[in-house]
Design a protein that fits this description.
The complex is a heterodimer.
Chain A lengths: L1 H30 L3 H10 L5 H26 L7 H18 L7 H27 L3 H23 L21 E2 L4 E2 L1 H18 L1 H11 L1 H6 L4 H28 L10 H11 L4 H25 L5 H13 L6 H15 L1
Antiparallel strand pairs in A: 1-2
Helix pairs in contact in A: 1-13, 2-12, 3-7, 3-10, 3-11, 3-12, 4-5, 4-6, 4-10, 4-11, 5-6, 5-10, 7-8, 7-12, 8-10, 11-12
Chain B lengths: L1 H6 L3 H26 L7 H19 L2 H25 L4 H24 L19 H4 L4 H5 L4 H19 L1 H11 L1 H6 L4 H27 L11 H12 L3 H23 L4 H26 L7
Classes of the chains: A mainly alpha, B mainly alpha.
């Protein structure tokens, strides 16, 4: 029974992905004459050479961490989608420590990344506190915090940390002690290993510890959690802070490894990509790893397609949103599920 | 600072308050009609964006702003139908469906903009057809009020009227009563023969209609081009303003005007050389404050009921 249900789940996932890609195909059909060329680069691009393959791995790093953050809050049925703001503010925290405390040498990188996590958690504190103290909707407040983070950080960076010698609007360069290493000559972000181990760690926390169990119980049924003695408010509070820290870390890792400056002049969108990563992974931290890789593959494929054919890579956003809808559609394939359960019940009689 | 105080006595300030409040008024009505029937429409932002895009583009191609208006509103209603279908038929979580819709609109509009104009920033090159302003002779000569109320975009007047229409709809009509019943207790509504499904579909479609008007105003009145992600959080601000007003259209509209005042004050502060990043933050911070005030009063009034 369990096996056939899992089979159903997998076939559902495959159908979803196929439908989403089909819709993407239709979009391409309308916008270019050379669809097969575009499709080739889209689907096969990230594997076409080593540099692109590394680009694909690098792209998965920030969304793996934000996906992890969102899978945590979604597990607790908390709709805090402020990962974007936490990431932005976390990136700012990393920049602050990297630029302001160059005298700590040996542990400079660690302190920098730690600061990113702390700043991210601090940003998540506001919606978490408002939710637990006054039951203010975390969805609206976390969205507002995204905009506020964006404007505040932009103001601070452009006015106080701007490198006037650089051609673009970017901060001063981080000192070398705060660089996160990039490997091989194609610059593989070593944050990839941080993200993967974080996923395993959070997965372990969620499925093998008391705290993780509390989070899942609160998510499944708040009242049951309350009456079995779990402090629901506290759980909802901490889970958001932890998620904020992960999202902040994503910002720190991305800046310390890939750019070594604060470079964002608009929200990079990793926090929103994290939503689809978490949903695709069914909020399971272990599954966040393949899920983030999959989304990164689509992303990079779309970018390569855009570079090779001149089409807009935004088609991938359309594909992603269709996937969100279909994957979370509980009624999809419901009839098959029912039939399966019925047949199984008959057999057992 | 005395300049700043004088500002509130200036009719031009209140004129601009009405101007910036227009999309919020529509969006608050969109939030209201869906929430009255018990569904939170997170997708307002995306519906607005879609309407802003199609309104501007179709209006430019047809050389007629009203055709654009219709196309824009129709696209938002189509989005609302998609939201209703995924939530009510496919049983997608309403919040997730809304978020997906917003993502979709954001990607889709940029993709289409690029496909149609070859540009990714704005649609300015299309040469849009803005919706005309109305010069009302009756208002023209009234001191102060004339300067505040006259010569607005036609949609601004429609927005003001629609507040009262929605108020009447919700409080006085049978449909409004059914919507409230479905929102408050779907089981009770079902037991007296009201189709919950139909009412929810209808309220989401109505919500799409208002979101569409809000979006069309942005690209055909507020400015006369479409820019990527030009809604800039207004759909979410509207959700907060609606929460402030509860089930009342009038209070919700006052909430929208409050945000309009915040935004217009921001413009004034910018002219006093306060950085735009800081002044642009005002509506978002105000939303947070309002959210807390609203939640606090709600918690107090329910304090005797054990809420977890």
């Amino acid at each position: 029974m369990k096996k056939s249900l899992a089979f159903l789940e997998i076939s559902r996932m495959i159908i979803t992905i196929l439908i989403a890609l089909l819709i993407g195909y239709i979009f391409l059909l309308f916008s270019t004459k050379n669809v097969s060329e575009a499709l080739k680069w889209f689907l096969y691009g990230p594997l076409s050479n080593q540099r692109r393959f590394v680009e694909f791995l690098n792209n998965s790093v920030p969304i793996m961490l934000t996906g992890l953050a969102l899978s945590l809050v979604f597990q607790a049925q908390v709709f805090n989608i402020g990962a974007e703001g936490c990431l932005f503010f976390g990136g700012f925290g990393a920049m602050l420590v990297a630029l302001k405390f160059p005298q700590i040498q040996l542990v400079h990188l660690i302190v920098t990344l730690f600061a990113a996590a702390v700043f991210g958690a601090a940003w998540a504190f506001v919606p978490a506190f408002l939710k637990v103290r006054w039951k203010a909707s975390e969805l609206v407040s976390s969205l507002m915090m995204n905009y506020i983070a964006y404007l505040l950080v932009l103001f601070l960076v452009n006015n106080y940390f701007r490198d006037k010698a650089a051609g673009a609007l970017v901060s001063y360069r981080f000192p070398q002690t705060a660089w996160l290493a990039t490997l091989t000559r194609y610059r593989l972000n070593s944050g990839f290993f941080i993200a993967v181990s974080a996923a395993i760690l959070i997965g372990f926390l969620l499925y093998f510890t008391k705290y993780g169990y509390q989070i899942r119980v609160v998510g499944a049924n708040k009242k049951f959690g309350f009456y079995s003695g779990i402090n629901v408010g506290l759980t909802v509070f901490w889970v958001q802070l932890l998620a904020g820290a992960l999202a902040g870390l994503a910002g720190g890792v991305e800046l310390a490894a890939m750019y070594r400056r604060f470079v964002w002049q608009s929200l990079p969108g990793y926090g929103f990509d994290g939503i689809i990563v978490a949903i695709l992974a069914r909020n399971n931290p272990f599954l966040v790893i393949p899920s983030a890789l999959f989304i990164a593959y689509l992303r990079v494929g779309a970018n390569i397609m855009s570079r090779m054919t001149g089409l807009a890579p935004e088609v991938v956003v359309v594909i992603q949103s269709v996937m969100i809808l279909l994957i979370t559609a509980e009624a999809l394939l419901d009839r098959f599920k029912k039939k399966l359960i019925e047949r199984e019940a008959m057999r057992n009689e | 600072m005395s300049n700043f105080a004088l500002n509130f006595a200036d009719p031009a300030f209140w004129y601009s308050v009405l101007r910036v409040s227009t999309p919020l008024l529509f969006a608050v009505m969109a939030a209201l009609v869906s929430s009255v029937a018990g569904s939170i429409n997170i997708g307002i932002e995306g519906m607005m964006l879609m309407a802003a895009f199609w309104g501007n583009v179709i209006g430019a191609f047809a050389r007629n702003p009203w055709v654009g208006l219709l196309a824009g509103v129709a696209s938002a209603v189509a989005m609302a139908l998609l939201l209703a279908f995924s939530h009510l038929k496919l049983r997608v979580n309403l919040v997730i469906a809304g978020v997906a819709l917003n993502l979709f609109a954001s990607g889709f509009t940029v993709f289409m903009l690029f496909a149609l104009t070859g540009e990714k920033g704005t649609s300015a090159s299309l040469g849009a057809q803005p919706i005309p302003r109305l010069d009302i002779p009756l208002l023209r000569n009234v001191p102060f009020l004339g300067k505040v109320l006259n010569n607005h975009n036609a949609l601004t007047y429609i927005a003001l009227i629609s507040v009262f229409v929605v108020d009447y709809l919700i409080r006085k009509t049978p449909l409004g009563m059914r919507m409230r019943a479905v929102g408050e207790n779907p089981d009770a509504a079902t037991s007296v023969g009201v189709s919950v499904l139909r009412i929810r579909y209808l309220s989401l479609v109505l919500s799409g209609l208002f979101a569409g008007l809000a979006g069309v105003f942005l690209s055909m009145g507020y400015v006369s081009w479409f820019a990527r992600d030009m809604t800039n959080g207004r759909g979410f601000i509207a959700l907060a303003a609606q929460a402030l007003g509860g089930k009342s259209a009038i209070l919700g509209a006052l909430g929208a005007l409050l945000f309009g005042i915040a935004e217009a004050t921001g413009f004034t502060l910018q002219s006093l050389r306060i950085p735009s990043e800081i002044t642009n933050m005002i509506p978002f911070i105000l939303t947070l404050i309002v959210l807390v005030i609203y939640a606090r009063t709600r918690v107090k009034s329910h304090s005797r009921i054990q809420e977890i």
